Amino acid sequence: MKAIFSPGPSYSDPETRKYAGWGRILDLYREGLEELGYDVFIPKVDCKLIDPTCTVSKMCSYDLVASRQLPLEADIFLGPAGYSIAQMTRLHQPWNKKFLYVWNNADWYRDQQLIEEYKRFGQPYDLSPAWRWINTTALEMCDHVIACSTFVKGTYSKLVPAEKISITFWGVDSQRFHPPEVEPPGFRILFAGGDPIRKGLIYLLEALKGLEGYELWIVGCNIQGGPSSWKQFGMVPNDQMPEIMRQCHVTCVPTLEDGIALVIQEGMACKLIPITSPETSEVFEDKVSGFKVGYRDVEGIREKILLLRDNPDVRKRMAEYARKRAEKDTWEKTKEEFK
Q1: Through-space distance between the first and last CA atoms of the chain, rounded to whole angstroms
Q2: pLDDT tens readout for residues 17-40
Q3: For a Cys staple, 289 with which of 165, 192, 314, 321, CB 3.0–4.6 Å?
Q4: How sure is the predictor about 207, in pLDDT bands with cuts at 50, 70 and 90?
């Protein structure tokens, strides 16, 4: 049996993999196919042939170059929606089953959550019709969709029949992401995300106004100014994240739009208590191993931070529950769900 696995241009880019924790899930997909008995073919696309000038050009250039390499006979094809149309078109024989994986919410939901938000802050927001057409057309062509969470499945159910979508939850390496031997001093909040608007950093900063007795560590993006209680790291290689997490107490990512926040699970494995929005809260039990807050809920974020700052016993109990919950979500379980 032959499987074509075309994970996109970032899979083999060492610089991207240096920072991206999601690279592990792509390895698991490949391993899962091999364990099912498939001979896996992966296109090798020279990064010099990828046009990075915009998202659509990057999608199309990778897809077209990869499509020229594919064997015409295969049992299944697996790839991301935006990078797969040309390849799926080339594999037109009836025995080719086409699977797509989706890690973020469907375009209609992303737009609903973010268009007005970016406009309010005077920031550009990509509304390319070509991008929407590529994703929608790919979904119409495929036989099955693999979503990373129940929330993501729900947003795609408007475009694809729900019975055509399955879920493979992400896991965490609880050996690499483990708690510190001694709880760190003080009270430290971790935010990790590359987009301060989409990931909700702007609302976390609003919630922290006037508060004392905390430190905020920001990973992935930089904010101008800020008090001395803020420490900004910028982009951090993934292999440095466990040590950063072990020095914190809380992970606060009040995201407006996300597929599933891997940083939440990794933080829980290090005994960080998550404070996050509804769509990334599937990986913990609200008020037991973390806190779910509403979108843009500044007062809700502030309330949960004060509760954890001022009640070490509550913090200790919830941190234990967070670790135990994270230990259930292994990468091996992810692979078995995928298979």
Answers
A1: 15
A2: 888 888 889 999 999 999 999 999
A3: 321
A4: very high
